[in-house]
Design goal:
The complex is a heterodimer. Chain A is built from 20 helices and 31 strands. By secondary structure, chain A is α/β, with parallel strands linked by helices. The longest helix of chain A has 19 residues. Classes of the chains: A alpha/beta, B alpha/beta.
């Protein structure tokens, strides 16, 4: 139970939990104290000194952002003297900021310095000379640095360290010539050389236009931008984000500053919008000879429907396959598998679920029951031990890697890494690395489980090529603590049934799984695997997470080889990643892609697909959270929403589905979502 | 000028301006050294006010210089100090150039108050103080710039700025403590390690064994408790060690034709001097008499206090800079000191420490009885893993850290009864309190206020120790009360092993009539305190052999001073001390920590303490007894207690 502290702010008697800062306590009670360097996502910096308040008994004002409340404290947030000091501090800050640029600056309207100047109405000072580069630094394709505008709040330095755990920025120099620069080994370097992975969080927290996204300049005024909540679909972590658009242009993607949606993001989520060379499929295309010709939408739909039905007629439903990239929405997954199963009659449905991952998810589900969310990057910070299984988390699910890193470096977690690759120690304070022989996942997990139970682990340890003492040490760390396990997608590439079983047994032995609670995070290489599997998008499970057992269809790998053998003759694919060119033996391939570069060579028909910024739908991330993505931009008439395309295909195949909106789809879907 | 013209220092106003110069009070009454680098101190502008000794000093110019220096040292994190100090300096310059107005004087007062009352750290909070005092007491000097009789610009003065803090000043090596604590606050543990490594490679070592004089100077003490500075240092070192952060690429190393410097002794002083000299481009060869490097770190302090892997990694760092250690080579015995000049060395640094035990003056100690083992030799054997001829009942004599090391090692060797005899009371024991407490926890029996009078033997083996009880009389020259025997209170302790640990002395086998210097009466080598040079030019010395049995950090500090002076000597023929060292020594004498000043803040907290290995486990072997900090979040909370008491002084001569 947290202790309650009673105090007085501006003659108002208030109370707050012990440990609350004066600023937070004031805001909780509707009293606003001006700030400049404060950011709700970061620990207080105490740099700008704008938030100073008068506290009875103190000779000088004190900062409210980084001082806790105390019993009986009497606070005045604004007196004439305090406001005078705030004004002077703001004037000093303006003296080192080229406020004349306000006219054309990208941040005008949302600039926090400008806002203070408007609120305080100070007399604008003469500029103090600063030794900073006059030119903007544009040494990379994502972030632009304009040091002249920097007010040295320190937020970027802090978010870089505590978010992705990179140490790109440092404060160098002294006095007014202090600068925030990318720094490494004692010298100023480019962002990339300083280790930047371009998650863009520094840009999101910058109060002014010292840091902006490349391409932001002259792309629309801040007040013209719409703010549409959404979710990232680049990996199965599914970070919440906000897309900001101006008309039909996506201008930037940010992470909301506060509220329940406080979260993280990586380069793919923040800058993914700048695909290397966006080359959108603008209209349906048909292969003619070796070239593609634009064709009318209705025709393309009819052709696809007719050809697939034909193949079904002549060679049976087993000769047809329906697949997707794993980035499609829940609604699309549901409709696509419905098209496949009830219209085309095929069980060859693989919309993005690895076999082993699916098995693990089912096993997990059986233990924890419905409607239970697993660990998120935020809840991982509270764990005393984090087991990381598999390798390559930094590339496959960067935000999971950030969360582990943060828990180990700033938090108190012991990180236990179990991997078949020798990975460099990653800068946690307490870390145990267990390297097992490639291919012996089952053995190492059995060994760890045995160690946690106090059983004999010499057999599994030997098989896994791991010293028994190392497994003992790892088990000790987990046994008595609040722990969670993060399983990277690399694990599911090679895992067999035994490995999946061993994984669940280990998590259970570690106290991470019970009915109603899950501390196991299963990361899939398919972004929406958790949504897809439940709605019938995997070959082994029908809608409602019903095991198909003897009636399971072919997975995408099996489809690929079956196509070569001529057993599968027709395929309908939504999204990229299927293959580089139509597999030999496949007579017909209809595919829906966002960019031309994603289209496999020799595909017969190509439909334009929506990027996430144009798509309405829900997605389920690996933690089990269902997130709503709202389209930030309208789709053109030539590109109806993907879900509509599926309905049109169904209709062309003779089934009229009467969904007037996505809500109708969702209503039907509800019946299949367990819980 | 050794008279005080004006002083507002430390809240005490001394205004002698209307008196005749011979009537004014003397400088020495203010604890201010009258000279700096052989120049007369004419004024001092600093964090606690303004002191003027020479009436000719231009106070306005001095303050402008002061604020230009504040800008140089302002870290840039807070707006008032970063921008305010620049505005103040600019405005003072404008005044000096003759373009000022009366409004400027009012403005200077206002902005000084802003910087003083709203800055983040003490640099901003204290630097306006001398300006406010000057504006109040030297108004005429400022007004003189408003009319045509401007004083001439530039006055041939030398300005020596020194940035310090109470903790930093209290550290003999003047490590940038506020700097590395700030790095830890911000989660930059590697940065904290790098800052420590500016002064020494022995960061993990100090994090475990340093006596932390910084903590006794911590400004938080009057408010709640000092910061756990030593353990924060240890955390940074441990973090770096666990993440292989050796930073080896950052170091510059000597080239192939580098000048050579000889170092005698691979203890902390020798290693540190080698570390600094190698980075300055010298090829260093260390002659070490023992088969291991580390000096007392390796053969004095037991491994339960300083794990050998920590020490050895830090020694390896020194070796990676091209430093060569020649083991089992005793200068004086194997190679005469003078021969080193023939080998082409340009300078010699003697740091062979105090590796012999001091005599107790107790009958029987020189008789060679079995069971009598001088503490230094006993510890060396234990630390080198040699078999020790120890019995079942041991008496250790002494009250310092060495005595604790002897006693606690005996427990770990399985001795059933370990007694500690000390002639004064517990409060006077020079050992670290934590060591004394831990020794008691481990079951060592303390016999305080007792002194041995003779060693009893049977068949040439120790059979007991005759002691007498003591009482504390008048203080002696060290300030501690002199112990006096109580008539008739003799008693015998039945022991079979006696280990005296009451002091250490040097082995001066290398000193010959021709070497150019002699040991002092105290049994040390005399050197210039700033350059560490002996009476023989080119021969320098540091560590215990100069300081007497002192601490690791003092050895390191002396080595750093020597390295600077050696570098100067080799390049210019003169061993000039580093001016930073001089300035720090100057303010050290002035005193930076003032315990009467209670900082104003919200929410006091006790300091973070480390975990100790449980007694039952730790006495069974030589595994590490104290475990340091465990949780990064707590470490950051502890670092946030630092109020960054940076203080800038400007010595004007």
């Amino acid at each position: 139970m947290m202790k309650t502290v009673n105090l007085q702010i501006n003659s108002k008697k208030v109370f707050a939990e012990e440990g609350t800062t004066i600023l937070e306590a004031a805001r909780q009670n509707g009293i606003d104290i001006p700030t400049l360097c404060y950011h709700p996502r970061l620990a207080p910096l105490g740099h700008c000194r704008v938030c100073i308040v008068d506290v009875q008994g103190f000779d000088k004002p004190i900062t409210s952002c980084d001082n806790p409340v105390a019993e009986g404290m009497v606070v005045e947030t604004t007196t004439p003297e305090i406001q005078e000091m705030r004004d002077q501090i703001l004037v000093l800050s303006l003296a080192t900021h080229p406020y004349k640029d306000c006219l054309t600056c990208e941040r005008t309207g949302t600039c926090e310095l400008q806002e203070k100047a408007y609120q305080f109405k100070v007399e604008l000072p003469e500029q103090l000379e600063r030794e900073v580069p006059a030119e903007k630094a544009e040494d990379n394709p994502y972030i632009v640095r304009d040091e002249e505008k920097c007010i040295l709040c320190g937020r970027c330095v802090r978010v870089c360290r505590t978010g992705p755990g990179c140490y790109v920025y440092e404060l160098v120099g002294n006095g007014v010539n202090t600068r925030v620069v990318p720094y490494k080994d004692g010298k100023e370097v480019s962002m990339e050389e300083a280790g930047c992975i371009f998650c863009g969080q520094c840009v999101d927290v910058c109060p002014v236009a010292a840091l902006t996204e490349t391409g932001r300049a002259a792309a629309g005024r801040e007040w013209e931008l719409s703010h549409i909540p959404g979710v990232c679909v680049e990996c199965s972590i599914g970070c919440f984000l906000e897309r900001q658009a101006s008309g039909d242009d996506l201008i930037k993607v940010t992470v909301p500053a506060e509220g329940e949606k406080v979260s993280w993001i990586c380069q793919k989520g923040k800058f993914g919008v700048h695909r290397p060379e966006p080359d959108p499929v603008e209209a349906p295309l048909q292969l003619e000879g070796s070239d593609y010709k634009e064709v009318a939408y209705d025709e393309a739909v009819k052709e696809t429907a007719r050809t697939l039905l034909d193949i079904k007629e002549k060679s049976g439903p087993g000769a047809v396959a329906v697949m997707a990239s794993g980035k499609q929405s829940n609604e699309e997954s549901y409709l696509l598998q419905k098209l496949a199963r009830s219209v085309l009659g095929t069980a060859n449905v693989d919309l993005g679920v690895e076999k082993a991952w699916g098995q693990a998810y089912q096993g997990l589900y059986k233990i924890i029951g419905p409607d239970v969310c697993g660990p998120t990057p935020a809840t991982m910070q509270e764990c005393e031990a984090i087991i990381v299984i598999g390798s390559g988390l930094e590339e496959s699910h960067p935000v999971a890697a950030f969360a582990v890193q943060q828990a180990g470096r700033f938090g108190d977690a012991v990180i236990v890494r179990i991997s078949d690759k020798k990975e460099e120690l990653k800068s946690a304070f307490k870390e145990i690395c267990v390297e097992y022989k490639p291919g012996s996942e089952t053995a190492v997990l059995k060994g760890l489980t045995a160690a946690m139970r106090g059983d004999d682990l010499s057999g599994p340890a030997k098989e896994a090529g791991v010293a028994a003492e190392d497994l003992q040490k790892a088990a000790e760390q987990v046994a008595k603590m609040r722990s969670c396990t993060v399983v990277g997608s690399s694990f599911f590439e090679n895992a067999d049934d035994a490995a999946v079983e061993a994984l669940l047994a280990m998590a259970k032995a570690g106290g991470q799984l019970e009915y109603g609670r899950s501390d196991l995070l299963l990361l899939s290489r398919y972004s929406n695997a958790a949504g897809t599997i439940v709605l019938g998008g995997s070959p082994s499970f029908g809608p409602g997470f019903v095991a198909l057992n003897g009636e399971a269809g072919l997975s995408r790998e099996e489809v690929a080889s079956a196509a070569v053998n001529g057993k599968v003759k027709g395929a309908l694919v939504f999204g990229d990643g299927f293959s580089d060119s139509k597999p030999g033996g496949l007579d017909f391939l209809a595919i829906s892609c966002i960019n031309r570069s994603e289209v496999p060579e020799k595909s017969d028909l190509v439909f334009p697909a929506q990027p996430p910024e144009r798509k309405n739908g829900t997605f389920t991330n690996s933690s089990g959270e269902i997130c709503i993505n709202k389209a930030a931009l309208e789709g053109g008439p030539e590109s109806p929403q993907d879900w509509k395309l599926i309905c049109d295909l169904a209709e062309a195949m003779g089934e009229k589905w009467n969904y007037s909106s996505l809500d109708d789809v969702r209503e039907e879907m509800q019946g299949y979502i367990p819980g | 000028m050794s008279k005080v013209f004006f002083s507002s220092w430390n809240g005490k106003l001394i205004d002698e301006r209307n008196k005749k110069s011979d009537e004014r009070i003397d400088l020495s009454q203010l604890d201010v050294p009258p000279q700096i680098e052989s120049e007369d101190l004419k004024a001092f502008v600093g964090w606690a006010g303004l002191m003027v000794f020479d009436p000719e000093v231009n106070v306005v110019e001095s303050l402008k210089e002061y604020f230009r220096n504040v800008q140089q040292d302002s870290c840039g994190r807070c707006i008032p100090c970063r921008a305010g100090s620049q505005v103040i300096a600019d405005r003072l310059e404008k005044l000096i150039e003759g373009n000022g107005s009366r409004e400027d004087l009012a403005f200077l007062k206002e902005i000084s108050k802003l910087v003083k009352d709203s800055s983040l750290c003490e640099l901003g909070m204290s630097s306006p103080v001398p300006l406010l005092h000057a504006l109040e007491h030297f108004e005429d000097d400022f007004s003189a710039y408003l009319n045509e009789e401007r004083p001439p610009a530039g006055n041939g003065l030398t300005y020596r700025p020194v940035l310090t803090a109470p903790c930093r000043n209290g550290c003999p090596a003047h490590i940038n403590i506020p700097g590395y604590i700030e790095c830890i606050k911000e989660g930059d543990y590697e940065g904290a390690l790098a800052i420590n490594r500016e002064k020494t490679p022995l960061v993990g070592t100090l994090g475990r064994v340093c006596v932390h004089p910084c903590e006794s100077n911590c400004n938080r003490q009057p408010y709640d408790e000092s910061l756990s500075i030593r353990l924060l240092k240890r955390f940074a070192a441990d973090f770096g060690a666990r993440n292989n952060y050796d930073q080896k690429d950052r170091y510059s190393k000597p080239g192939p034709n580098a000048d050579k410097v000889a170092v005698i002794g691979a203890g902390p002083a020798g290693l540190n001097a080698a570390y600094q000299l190698a980075q300055k481009g010298y090829k260093v060869i260390i002659y070490e008499a023992l088969p291991v490097a580390g000096g007392m770190l390796a053969v004095g302090i037991p491994s339960y206090r300083l794990p050998r892997d920590i020490l050895n990694t830090e020694i390896e760092l020194v070796e990676s800079l091209g430093v060569e250690i020649k083991y089992n080579t005793k200068i004086g015995e194997d190679i005469p000191l003078e021969k080193l000049w023939d080998e082409g060395f340009k300078a010699i640094f003697i740091a062979n420490g105090l590796h012999e035990s001091a005599n107790m003056g107790c009958p029987g100690e020189d008789a060679g009885y079995r069971g009598f083992m001088p503490g230094v030799e006993y510890l060396r054997k234990v630390n080198l893993g040699e078999k020790v001829d120890i019995g079942d009942k041991v008496a250790v004599i002494g009250g310092g850290n060495v005595a604790m090391d002897c006693a606690r090692s005996a427990v770990r060797l399985g001795v059933k009864e370990v007694n500690l005899i000390y002639r004064r009371s517990r409060a006077e024991m020079p050992a670290n309190k934590a060591e004394v407490d831990a020794a008691e926890e481990e079951g060592i029996k303390f016999h305080l206020l007792a002194n041995p009078t003779s060693i009893l033997e049977e068949a040439s083996c120790v059979s007991g120790l005759q002691c007498i009880e003591m009482k504390l009389g008048e203080p002696d020259e060290s300030g501690r009360r002199r112990p006096e025997p109580i008539e008739g209170s003799d008693f015998v302790l039945e022991v079979d092993t006696v280990i005296p640990a009451i002091g250490q002395v040097a082995d001066f086998c290398y000193i010959t009539p021709e070497c150019g210097f002699e040991p002092t009466q105290k049994g040390t080598i005399q050197t210039d305190p700033a350059t560490m040079e002996t009476d023989q030019p080119g021969v320098f010395a540091g560590g215990d052999v100069v300081l007497g049995a002192a601490t690791v950090i003092e050895a390191i500090a002396s080595a750093n001073r020597a390295a600077e002076a050696i570098d100067n000597y080799i390049r210019t023929g003169k061993s000039k001390p580093n001016s930073q060292v001089v300035k720090e020594q100057h303010v050290e004498k002035m005193g930076v920590y003032k315990e009467e000043v209670v900082p104003e803040m919200v929410g006091g907290r006790t300091r973070l303490e480390e975990e100790a290995c449980p007694v039952e486990i730790r006495v069974k072997g030589f595994g590490e007894a104290e475990l340091g900090f465990k949780n990064p979040s707590e470490v950051i909370d502890e670092a946030e207690r630092c109020i960054k008491c940076l203080r800038l002084g400007l010595a004007i001569s």
